[in-house]
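Example 3.2
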Amino acid sequence: MLRPRVGCLAEGLFERVPPLRASGPAVGMTMVGACESVGWQPLNPKGEVDSAARTPAKTHPLRCAQWLPPGPPPPKGRHRLLYSWAFRSSPRSPSGWSRGLGRSCKPWPTGGPVEHGQGLARHGPGGYNAWVANKANHCGKGTAMTDQRITRRRFLESTAVVSGALIVGDRLLAAEPAKRPTAVDQVKLGKTGLRICRLGMGFGSVGGSVQRSLGQDGLTRLVRYGYERGVRYIDTAESYRTHEMIAAAIKGLPRETLFIQTKMPGNPEKPLEVLDRYRRELGVEYIDSVLTHCVVRHDWDDERRRVLDALEEAKARKIIRAHGMSCHSVPALKRSGEIDWVDVHLVRINPQGVNMDTPAERWNAKSDASHVPAVVEQLKVLHAKKRGVIGMKIMGEGAFTSPEDREKSIRFAMRCPGLSAIVIGFKSTAEIDEAIERMNRALAELPDAAEAAEATEAA
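Structure, written as tokens:
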């Protein structure tokens, strides 16, 4: 028999903490509100798995669950409490994990039903439980619970007897949760006002041939797998010849959950008509970001003035949401920081210096590690100007076949100043998993990881 475990992911641990007092033999239960967790399935008000479930404003909490076989371990994942109470409960479950045994509850003030489900808190030595719960009046058979405000300090003091910690999901939380940024966070893209997934799926490996070789079914499986893992940024270009394949792969996905970036090569006569074609090919009404592609000249903004003006007009008409440049030389990169037109910079970066920008105004100029400092210096300039910067060639366009090189490059990228996101060209689901794992590990080791997570939450 399978059963759901229910958890909450929400901001504000201990920020609003009323006490929960139980009279008589308390029967523990949980109510779920505003739940979110990567890899979990949303439930509709009837308790059915429903991928289209949403949170109707002020009517009913969104519930989410992960179906697991019976057993004491809590589900893995990232969970934080919006509301938390500690109260004495009896009896304990044989496994030590609290069971959702509630019988009945009063309705929410809005009229929606109060739901009960699986508890996620372990009993402490004093027989106390910490529960993921929302505000409730009289819940649980034979239990009366009084709700009143207390301070953060009082709550922490009162729960200190619970072996000094709360267990939520599979994380042991001391006084505060360990906030960690992740590969699939939605982060600010400079001062564009847009948000982008920290990790993007690229479709231009070896000119897009690697991704095209997967065929439509293979590419669709790759995109859908990445989407389910939380990778919602898609990076392509006209020259990759993958627009139509991407359109088929994302068909049916909520458009607002995706960040789609494409690129326009050269200096076409009618850029707005080209943009209309891109939208048809991608099957979208708007494109989040459009870049002028493969820029190498120091005077590229003059050379491609027609394209820049057209993209500015398209942004005003809301055909696109941002514009920028894909950089392939240090002179072009330096110039991009000098002009105000650029919203988004796509920059080649890796510590080995493979397929990196050089002083030569050629897209394929040979590069090595000696060219890295000049690029990093320009990243600092862009960071100071709060530009949106995305790193590419993180894997040297497939050159890094050793795990050590891949680990080194991702760690380096996560420490680069002002880098909002990175894009990697994947050809398998295993590569997606590896990139997420390496990024999460690198981000967790940053000295300012907590601050980065808080900035992500506020984005």
